[in-house]
């Protein structure tokens, strides 16, 4: 059987695939149409819940988070008047409701943003349900109506997921189905892309892309240790005939106006994957093909503007006693899948305009800034050695990691990054991580002698300490010794 990943966002999930917004309103005040899904949820509860005599146990959860910001001086280059940047206040609230009974689960997340004195029209108060779903689950099926997060493969084909509580998140609002029988798994989905409209970093009101997405993924482990999978994703963009036929009655934005003279019509993603899982060795490979259909206005009429894309990812993990070795390789060619531009923000500066729909493996450290993960090739090697645990149960791990990339940070340039470290996990749960390394970015063709874009030594410390029951302290320190544009 294929092991499911952890549950997403606290909602019960059926066995998912291996390896994870109502429309924007012009007014700054909460809009009544955003609350229509609340009535739909109440109706679903009334219809779905059994009679009290036959009712299953009911679990009801409420999670509430409130954050407030006061900016002495708001960092926004679009505000040319210094007085508009001073003393900007905003509040954001997220209310999560979860109800579970028997095979059903219901969920709602209500997001609110309030700006008492917005510094510009890009900052707007807002109130809307950002996550609304009804899920039914049994041994074979998991059916969801509403918002759901999903990842196909290792994120190459589609990655609509929740990053954290403060950043942007993207999900698919529609219908979702998972079926699982012995040795076989099927996932189907259809819906419109939905994003958090006011995040906690940029704080500006961003409209939903509302791209129409159809997806299918099949996976089988009937061959024992070998798991095979295939997927298909169809993204009907803003100017596709199918999407235009649906947007007028749903969103009222079915206008066929071009954006910057370009018409975004369709993106098709196909891919296959294979994984061989043995006792001490795991090998995974995934291949993807991308086909964009776009046109651009020209004097001679519409001309094709879309470019195909290609992606290949390989990884192998071997465990021999206390040694673990990971080898990864990637080759991405024009592997960029983003949301369609929205007419309300396409011509505005200083505001998020597109959202990524894929998250291909980068082979980089999670805290390393990746300038190019769409047209790049690279390899990565990591070796871990676990020392014998102490009598108290403390665990020590030594590790070495090295990665090399071609066409990074830009075309015809290369990057090398190597680092080593020590990780201590104590029997109490406390954790200490120390690491140091060197990164070099070269542009050999920039001049006769070449240019070193970046030479950097870095030192890192990460400490997690339990102070008392329910009280934790997390400290992170990083220092970089940088030499930039050597030879320029």
Properties at a glance:
488 residues; mainly beta; 20-stranded antiparallel β-sheet; two-stranded antiparallel sheet; 3 helices; 6% helix; globular; disordered N terminus
Structure characterization notes:
With 488 residues, the protein is mostly beta strands. It is 6% helix and 53% strand. It contains three helices and 22 strands. The protein has a 20-stranded antiparallel sheet that branches. A two-stranded antiparallel ribbon has the order 6-7. Strand 2 (86-101) and strand 3 form a beta hairpin. Mean pLDDT is 84; it is low at 1-35 and 44-53.
Count of alpha/pi helices? 3
Along the chain, the helix and strand elements come as HEHEEEEEEEEEEHEEEEEEEEEEE
* Amount of helix: under 10%
What is the general shape?
Answer: globular
Q: Give the C-alpha Rg.
A: 25 Å
At a glance:
The chain has 488 residues and is mainly β.
């Amino acid at each position: 059987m294929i092991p499911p990943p952890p549950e997403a966002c606290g909602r019960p999930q059926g066995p998912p695939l291996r390896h994870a917004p109502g429309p924007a309103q012009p007014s700054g005040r909460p809009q009544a149409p955003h609350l229509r899904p609340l009535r739909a949820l109440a109706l679903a509860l009334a219809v779905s819940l059994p009679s009290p005599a036959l009712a299953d146990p009911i679990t009801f959860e409420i999670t509430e988070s409130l954050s407030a910001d006061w900016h002495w001086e708001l960092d926004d280059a679009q505000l040319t008047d210094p007085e508009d940047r001073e003393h900007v206040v905003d509040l954001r609230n997220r209310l999560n409701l979860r109800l579970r009974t028997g095979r059903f689960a219901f969920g709602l997340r209500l997001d609110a943003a309030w700006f008492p004195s917005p510094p510009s029209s890009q900052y707007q108060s807002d109130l809307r349900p950002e996550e609304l779903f009804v899920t039914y689950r049994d041994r074979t099926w998991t059916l969801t109506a509403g918002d759901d997060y999903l990842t196909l493969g290792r994120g190459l084909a589609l990655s609509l997921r929740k990053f954290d509580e403060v950043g942007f998140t993207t999900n698919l609002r529609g219908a979702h189905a998972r079926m699982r029988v012995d040795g076989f798994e099927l996932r189907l989905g259809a819906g419109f892309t939905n994003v958090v409209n006011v995040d906690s970093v940029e704080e500006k009101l961003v409209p939903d892309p509302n791209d129409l997405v159809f997806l299918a993924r099949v996976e089988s482990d009937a061959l024992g240790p070998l798991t095979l999978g295939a997927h298909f994703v169809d993204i009907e963009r803003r100017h596709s005939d199918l999407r235009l036929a649906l947007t007028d009655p749903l969103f009222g934005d079915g206008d066929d106006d071009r954006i910057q003279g370009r018409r975004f019509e369709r993106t098709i993603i196909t891919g296959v994957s294979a994984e061989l899982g043995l006792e001490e060795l795991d090998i995974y490979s995934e291949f993807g093909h991308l086909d964009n259909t776009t046109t651009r206005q020209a004097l001679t009429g519409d001309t094709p503007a879309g470019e195909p894309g290609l992606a290949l990812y390989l990884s192998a993990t071997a465990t021999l006693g206390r040694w673990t070795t990971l080898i990864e390789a990637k080759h991405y060619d024009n592997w960029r899948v983003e949301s369609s531009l929205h007419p309300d923000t396409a011509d505005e500066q200083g505001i998020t305009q597109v959202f990524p729909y894929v998250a291909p493996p980068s082979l980089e450290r999670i805290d390393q800034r990746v300038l190019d993960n769409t047209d790049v090739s690279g390899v990565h090697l990591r070796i871990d050695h676990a020392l014998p645990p102490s009598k108290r149960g403390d665990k020590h791990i030594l590790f070495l990691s090295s990665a090399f990339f071609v066409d990074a940070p830009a075309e015809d340039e290369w990057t090398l990054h190597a680092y080593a470290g020590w990780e201590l996990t104590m029997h109490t749960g406390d954790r200490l991580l120390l690491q140091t390394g060197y990164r070099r970015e070269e542009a050999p063709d920039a001049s006769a002698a070449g240019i070193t874009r970046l030479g950097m030594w870095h030192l890192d410390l990460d400490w997690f300490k339990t102070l008392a029951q329910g009280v934790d302290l997390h400290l992170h320190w990083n220092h970089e010794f940088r030499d930039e544009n050597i030879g320029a």
